Amino acid sequence: VPVPHFGVVLRLAEWKSLADKLIGKGQVFELAPKLRFVGQLGEQGTFFLLDPFGNAIEFKGFDQIDALFSR
Known about the structure:
- This protein is of the alpha+beta class.
- It contains one helix and four strands.
- Strands 1-4-3-2 form a four-stranded mixed β-sheet, covered by helices on one side.
- A hairpin with a 5-residue loop joins strand 3 (44-50) and strand 4 (56-62).
- The two termini are 15 Å apart.
């Protein structure tokens, strides 16, 4: 995980849609989209991109936004 980084939190369905769109356009990821903690509290989708200045941006998706800080 790139440190430091900025984060964006989305609903999981929106995250999946964005990840699929970026993959379809050939986006280069710093860390590719993946699901973590499947079936557990804090289940999330995550991927990282770099902005034009090299800053890492994490995109997270949750079905339960209140689980954001459960890990």
